[in-house]
Design goal:
This protein is α+β, with helices and mostly antiparallel strands and 372 residues long. It is built from 9 helices and 15 strands. The strands form 6 sheets. The chain has a 4-stranded mixed sheet. A 3-stranded mixed sheet has the order 1-9-8. Strands 2-7 form a two-stranded antiparallel sheet. A hairpin with a 2-residue loop joins β12 and β13. α2 runs antiparallel to α3. The longest helix is centred in the N-terminal third of the chain and has 17 residues. The relative contact order is 0.10. The structure holds zinc ion (2 copies). One zinc ion (ZN) binds next to loops.
Length: 372
């Protein structure tokens, strides 16, 4: 039968949450494995305190415990590690790390225990590169050179940071524990070792190429294959072109994000392009051929008779290709019908004749200005 949890923490049954937390902290610090290396009894006490706190530090679990005692946490009712006790010290750090945080220099609860020594191979980080391209590049696709700087494994020491033939040695300051303990008022405080920064080891003889960092900055040049049909926001993944791996680990990936620059003439919506064209008024009225500029070059189109201002003329397959598949979008032209500001003598005479025939009253316009 486990001991009564209130007794374990040394608090009254009526104790409030703050008191319980304080009591647990005190015990946890007293029996902390780093303060009592090799002491089995202290370790058991440390686990017992954690188990008690896991229940009493949680409002609903505490209520269950108050009602049913230890029986509340058998047969799966309580769930979690509290039900069966903590088997591993690192479980405790994982669960209550925030409590130790205040005392052990923020998250360093495990005293180097939970922390990986980071000496094995590790994959490099993924990188993101924003690539500006022109709308024209979207039509056929393009090859774009890019250049950037990123971290890479130091090849001289293969990321170890140590000169060839030398290695790491246990840090003398902390004896390999990665932490030093100092007394502050009431408490023993464990802080990361100032010499090894918590690693527990130091490099005997640093590599000249990377100054013991194991990493170097490298300039990278790549040719990015931009496929036809990309749009702003399209991401290309260049496998293993990201930051170099650590100590022989694989590199990360490079994500190239597309930004299509705004175009003077064309607006885009998916694979459809939009453009405005100027249509002389006679051509709008009577219809006729007109040369326009598409994204691919010049093209002769036919303006239908009776075209109104801002009518849309659809030119099939003069838009953009879709990113996947063979579809090509359309070009939609908005007709801006243009009237002359000044008429030629003959033109004015004919127009006046038409107005007269239509019985339409128009101004005299002695000056030859064309006005309605
Ligand atoms: Zn150290
Ligand atoms: Zn190096």
């Amino acid at each position: 039968m486990p001991r009564d949890y209130y007794e374990v923490l040394g608090v009254e049954k009526s104790a409030d949450a703050t008191t319980i937390k304080k009591a647990y902290r005190k015990l946890a610090l007293k029996f902390h494995p780093d303060q009592n290396p090799g002491d089995k009894e202290a370790e058991e006490k440390f686990k017992e305190a954690a188990e008690a706190y896991e229940i009493l530090g949680n409002e609903s679990k505490r209520a269950q415990y108050d009602q049913y005692g230890h029986a509340a946490f058998r047969g799966g009712m309580g769930g979690g590690p509290g039900a069966g006790g903590f088997h591993d010290i690192s479980d405790i750090f994982e669960q209550f790390g925030d409590i130790f945080g205040d005392f052990f220099g923020g998250g360093g609860a495990g005293g180097g225990r939970g922390r990986s020594r980071s000496t094995g191979p590790r994959r490099g980080s993924d990188l993101r590169y924003v690539l500006q391209i022109d709308l024209e590049d979207v039509v056929e696709g393009a090859k774009k050179p890019i250049e950037f700087e990123c971290e890479d494994n130091c090849e001289v020491c293969n990321g170890s940071g140590a000169k060839a033939g030398t290695g790491r040695k246990t840090c003398g300051t902390c004896g390999g524990r990665g932490q030093v303990v100092r007394q502050q008022g009431f408490f023993s405080m464990a802080t990361p070792c100032p010499t090894c920064h918590g690693a527990g080891e130091i490099i005997e003889d640093p590599c000249d190429a990377c100054h013991g960092q194991g990493r170097v900055q490298k300039k990278r040049k790549l040719l990015v294959n931009v496929p036809a049909g990309v749009d702003t926001g399209t991401q290309l993944r260049l496998s293993e072109e990201g930051e170099g791996g650590y100590r022989g680990g694989p590199p990360g990936d490079l994500f190239v994000e597309m930004r299509v620059k705004p175009h003077r003439q064309f607006e885009r919506n998916g694979d459809t392009l939009f453009s405005q064209i100027e249509v002389p008024y006679l051509k709008a009225i009577l219809g006729g051929p007109l040369e326009i500029k598409t994204i691919r070059g010049k093209k002769q189109i036919e303006i239908p008779p009776g075209t109104q201002p801002y009518n849309e003329i659809r030119i099939p397959k003069e838009g953009l290709p879709s990113l996947r598949g063979t579809r090509i979008g359309d070009l939609i032209l908005r007709a801006k019908v243009v009237f002359p500001k000044k008429l030629k003598k003959e033109e004015e005479k004919l127009l006046r004749q038409i107005a007269k025939n239509n019985g339409e009253e128009v101004s005299e316009g002695k000056s030859g200005l064309f006005g309605f």
